[in-house]
Amino acid sequence: MVQRLGLAESDLLVTTARGVHAEPLAEFVFLALLAHAKDLPRLLRDQRTHRWERYCGGELKAKRMAIVGAGKVGAEVGRFAKTFGIHVTALVSNPRPGRAAELNADAVHGPDFLLAALAQADYVVLSLRIRQQARA
């Protein structure tokens, strides 16, 4: 973008915070996953009504996750997923060799694998970046 705007050779200092929110966003993803797996609404309801019946929530271990658009945020989600024993498939625009390790994924595929990944996934994380066209 800096190059396209003709700023590369200027005295203007351009910085970015790209990736700085990856960990907090990954934490939020797992807040939602755990709330779903453990049925947090039920637990809160039971707590409010002082109802203490035996209850076992679901587990994340051995589930399958598809991360669509795995960049910095997706890689961090993949790292968290590995901790929980989740099988991770990352879907990226450029599935070159070595991306699985970069993205903390078990498998990396291109966009042509989207439907198959969705069919296999217990959880889907969308971590897409919308590319804006530079206006002339």
Structure description:
There is one protein chain. The longest helix has 16 residues, at 22-37. The chain is built from 5 helices and 4 strands. The protein is elongated and about 70 Å long. It has 136 residues and is α/β, with parallel strands linked by helices. The protein has one domain: 3-Layer(aba) Sandwich (Rossmann fold). Helix 4 links the parallel strand 2 (87-91) and strand 3. It has a 4-stranded parallel beta sheet with strand order 3-2-1-4, sandwiched between helices.
Summarize this structure as a short list of keywords or feature phrases.
single chain, 136 residues, alpha/beta, Rossmann fold, 5 helices, 4 strands, 12% strand
Query: Considering DSSP H and I runs of 4 or more, what fraction of the residues is helical?
Result: 25-40%
Radius of gyration: 19 Å
Overall pLDDT metric: 91
The CATH architecture name reads 3-Layer(aba) Sandwich
Largest sheet: 4 strands, parallel
What is the count of β-strands?
Answer: 4
Name of the level-1 CATH class? Alpha Beta
Q: Would you give the CATH topology?
A: Rossmann fold
